[in-house]
Amino acid sequence: MRLTESKSSAPFIWCGLATSELAALELARLEDILDDEERARIIRLRAAPQRRDSTVAHGLRRLLLAAFTGQPAHSFRFYRDKSGAKPKAEGLPQIDFSLTHCHGYAAAAAGAFGRIGIDAEPLDRKVEPELVNDKSGTEYETASGTIVAWTLKEALSKAEGSGLALGFSGLNVDINSPRLLAAPASFGNPAGWKLERHCHAGFTIAIAFGPTGAGVRHGLH
Q1: I want to staple 155 with a disulfide (CB 3.0 to 4.6 A). Which of 66, 119, 192, 215 is the partner?
Q2: Tens of pLDDT along 190-217?
């Protein structure tokens, strides 16, 4: 599995793949590096494809942390400061990470000395434009532009820590560059954020990496 370095100077790596392309043995190897808590959460998912996608995403998260630290992928332990908070890895205070999985795709990202979020969606997913438009009235002319904007804003909200609870109207993004133009105060200076877009196997993937700051909220992964 290829771990992908960012296209920018931001210190992060990521990996994503179509889960249906994985052989049973590869899936089993990813499941083997998970801990009991991860397996228990995954087994509660009702649909087998969801369990597969979640297994891959959590396994990729561990492989990324192993690439950063040189530690065995199975050795990491995760905790939350409080219920609903963004997970952290024990003993790795300077590394942030994020994962995503949906409809046959899974991905994870990890970065040092900053906040990171990743999101992936099918390119043909239909999203109502009003869910993505920002306070300035920016509108996205095509369905593909709308889903790209959605994934960028979702990645940003994961990195910031609030997830969907943040709401997207306060986030103004240029989907072509891509870059963050305006954001709530919890993001700090929008110019300090790095955004990337990737397309793979019929999915659009967005990664957001930004500075840490005082008063940062943490939630979701």
Answers
A1: 119
A2: 999 999 999 988 999 999 999 986 444 4
Give me the pLDDT at residue 83, please: 77
Q: What angle do helix axes 48-69 and 36-43 make, rounded to 10 degrees?
A: 160
User: Can you give the pLDDT at residue 182?
Assistant: 92
Which phi and psi (to 5°) does residue 88 adopt? -130, 160
Ordered by where they begin, the domains of the chain are 12-92 (3.90.470.20), 114-213 (3.90.470.20)
The residue among 192, 196, 132, 133 whose CA lies nearest residue 160 is: 192
User: If we measure between CA atoms, which residue out of 95, 97, 101, 92 comes closest to residue 117?
Assistant: 97
Q: Are 139 and 192 in contact (CB under 8 A)?
A: no
Rg of the chain, C-alpha, whole Å = 17
For residue 29, report the phi and psi dihedrals to the nearest 5 degrees.
-65, -40
Cα separation of 39 and 122, whole Å? 26
Taking 50 as the pLDDT cut, the residues of the chain under it are: 214-221
Q: pLDDT tens across 67-78, in order?
A: 989 999 999 999
Residue 151: its H or E element: helix 143-160
